[in-house]
Write a structure and sequence with these properties.
With 458 residues, the protein is of the alpha/beta class. It has 17 helices and 14 strands. Strands 2-9-8-7-6-3-4-5 form an eight-stranded mixed sheet, with helices on both faces. Strands 10-11-14-13 form a four-stranded antiparallel sheet, with no helix packed on it. Strand 3, helix 9 and strand 4 form a beta-alpha-beta unit. Helix 8 crosses helix 13. It binds pyridoxal-5'-phosphate.
Length: 458
């Protein structure tokens, strides 16, 4: 007789590393956690959410349906508002992009409409846009995490390969591990993916006859978790072009899953258009967005824009998961969007995170030994610090245990790297978050971390 009745997946799924980190934070009251990806408590929109809910409950006409089950794809008003919001974001990002990327867009657009005159091109572009950002292609999910899970579920069989950035969002790696998928990682540069490396990875997969196992590239494109890196629009164009180039050998589409969880949290520089804005490529792009980080992490309303065949498959899977995200929460977000509460909140939040990021930067400059290199983000919640290669920061390292002894916690870089036999897993980095800690805690936490680091570094 079998010793347990768990499925293969039940047996394979291990405890996520973050659970241990959370436990460590909760069991030590004096500990300052620069580890959690939580947002800033003080700025959570209590008054705004109350106003929006009051508006929902002002009349039974909106109050009753909000308290009733909804439909699987999501509340129609929220789908419409979200699609319009995203279309506006991309339009503004294209317009405000630097001259070079704007001319690249126009050049690419003109290439896709060869003989059309200027006005026909305009009309076609508008038409295309309406199709791309159509509410019909937009699915509301229970956090964007659910979309990441269901998309992977809809596309990948056990043993399939998912391409990821190196490093990447470690919770996504948990999905791959649990579903018996393999990861191949592609190096990151300061402005996003190393496209030359991606091409080499794809070529080696083709040589080994494994390209047909590749269904998906997972990209955290804005202020990436964990490195804070934003992928430039040029790189998104290059990435989609490369995936397309290898599709024939794969024998099926290779999709780009663009995770834009931190997009709303930009506090410096200009927004970058999403991969949906890459001309002619929208049928290969799955865009995952969320209202968690820019509004309230406790609300957990996310969404996805999906190509048609995938939309149906993922919606059916959602039907089995939960047949619809909490309707009340969708009404809340829809009211916040429609009334301007959301927009005003995001603007305030950007200022607040700009300030907290500056506090962290000054503390790092003051307390970290010069041997530590670090990347300053233009948004999101994270700094990424790199120690010399021979100094380990992992869960079992002296740097980590010293930090814990000094009552400060960071995310060891090693947990953000996929298991990939093609390279040795780096183990000398750390993700440090300014999201949840107060300004005083950021200063004190970085001072404690720096004190520990000085034991090992000059
Ligand atoms: C990169 C990334 N994607 C997705 C998520 C999931 O966010 P949610 O499910 O709250 O939308 C997170 C949460 O931390 C994240 O860091």
């Amino acid at each position: 007789m079998k010793t347990n009745a768990l499925s293969k997946m039940g047996q394979r799924t291990t405890e996520p590393p973050i659970s241990w980190l959370m436990h460590a934070a909760l069991s030590r009251p004096k500990l300052i956690s620069l580890a959690a990806g939580f947002t800033d408590n003080a700025s959570l929109p209590v008054a705004g959410a109350r106003t929006a809910l009051n508006q929902v409950f002002r009349s039974p006409k909106t109050g009753q349906p909000a308290l009733q089950y909804g439909i699987t794809a999501g509340n129609p008003a929220l789908r419409k508002l979200t699609a319009a919001h995203l279309q506006k974001l991309d339009f503004q990002a294209v317009v405000s992009s630097s001259h070079s990327s704007l001319s690249l867009v126009l050049e690419l657009k003109s290439r896709t409409s060869l003989r059309a005159d200027a006005s026909a091109r305009q009309a076609r572009t508008k038409d295309e846009d309406e199709k791309i950002y159509s509410p019909e292609r937009l699915l509301i999910t229970s956090g964007s995490q659910q979309l990441l899970y269901m998309t992977t579920e809809a596309l990948c069989n056990e043993g399939d390969i998912v391409l990821v950035e190196d490093p990447t969002y470690f919770v996504f790696l948990g999905i791959l591990q649990s579903r018996g998928l393999r990861a191949r990682s592609v190096r990151l540069e300061r402005d996003g993916l190393d496209l030359a490396h991606l091409e080499r990875v794809l070529q080696s997969l083709r040589r080994n006859g494994e390209l047909r196992r590749v269904k998906l590239f997972y990209l955290v494109s804005y202020f990436q978790n964990p490195t804070g890196v934003t992928t430039s629009f040029q790189k998104k164009c290059g990435l989609l072009k490369l995936l397309k180039k290898f599709e024939r050998a794969a024998g099926h589409p290779i999709y780009l899953l663009e995770d834009a969880a931190y997009r709303g949290l930009r506090f410096a520089g200009n927004d970058v258009p999403s991969a949906l804005a890459v001309p002619g490529a929208a049928e290969r792009v799955i865009y995952a967005g969320t209202f968690s980080k820019p509004f309230a992490t406790g609300v957990r309303v996310g969404y996805g824009i999906l190509p048609k065949p995938l939309f149906a498959a993922v919606k059916h899977i959602k039907g089995n998961h939960d047949f619809g995200t909490s309707n009340l929460l969708q009404y809340l977000v829809a009211r916040a969007l429609a009334s301007g509460i959301y927009g005003r909140h995001v603007a305030r939040l950007q200022k607040r995170y700009a300030h907290k990021a500056r506090v962290m930067k000054l503390a790092i400059e003051r307390h970290f030994p010069p041997a530590v290199e670090w990347w300053e983000p233009e948004g999101g919640l994270y700094f990424w610090a790199r120690l010399p290669r021979n100094v380990s920061t992992g869960l079992k390292s002296k740097v980590f245990s010293t930090a814990l002894k000094n009552d400060v916690l960071y995310v060891p870089g090693e947990i953000c790297y996929a298991d990939d036999a093609a390279r040795r897993k780096p183990n000398h980095e750390m993700r440090i978050s300014f999201g949840n800690a107060s300004e005083a805690e950021i200063r004190e936490g970085i001072a404690r971390l720096g004190k520990g680091l000085r034991k090992f570094l000059k």
